[in-house]
Design a protein that fits this description.
143 residues, alpha+beta, S16 Ribosomal Protein, Chain: A, five-stranded mixed sheet, two-stranded antiparallel ribbon, Ribosomal_bS16_dom_sf
């Protein structure tokens, strides 16, 4: 039986309250669970002690038995320290490269930059050419 440490939603509409439970991975979110080990109230301020309350001893016992925490619960467990180290090593889940453009978009940007550089070069060459033509004409007129 694959066990998960996860949140089970309670509370009324627009007033969420979650219980931190040990449940079978196949059980529904708010369905049957093995044991309740804590609670989470997202309406409280982030610095409040009552926002997240988890029994560290029970959590560490279930982790030793092989229960896998969900992403949100892993974040909570990483803030609880037992014997000077966190219960779970949680790493930020976001992909830092997700916002970067793809290969084709980078190629299009390079082509656009190259065209702009070529146009600027051509404009500079066009400005120099009339100046070179005017100089000999002025010399001829003065002679």
């Amino acid at each position: 039986m694959a066990l998960k440490i996860r949140l089970a939603r309670g509370g009324s509409k627009k007033r969420p309250f979650y219980s931190v439970v040990i449940a079978d991975a196949r059980a529904p979110r708010d369905g049957r669970f093995v044991e309740k080990i804590g609670s989470y109230d997202p309406r409280l301020p982030k610095d409040s002690e009552a926002r997240v309350q988890i029994d560290a001893e029970k959590a560490s016992e279930w982790l030793r038995k092989g229960a896998q925490p969900t992403e949100r619960v892993a974040r909570f467990l990483s803030q609880i320290e037992v014997d000077g180290k966190p219960l779970v090593e949680w790493k930020h889940g976001n992909n830092p490269n997700k916002g970067e453009p793809g290969k084709k978009a980078k190629e299009r940007a390079e082509e656009k930059a190259q065209k702009a550089a070529d146009a600027a070069e051509a404009a500079a060459a066009a400005e120099e050419a009339p100046a070179a033509e005017e100089a000999p004409a002025e010399e001829a007129a003065s002679e």
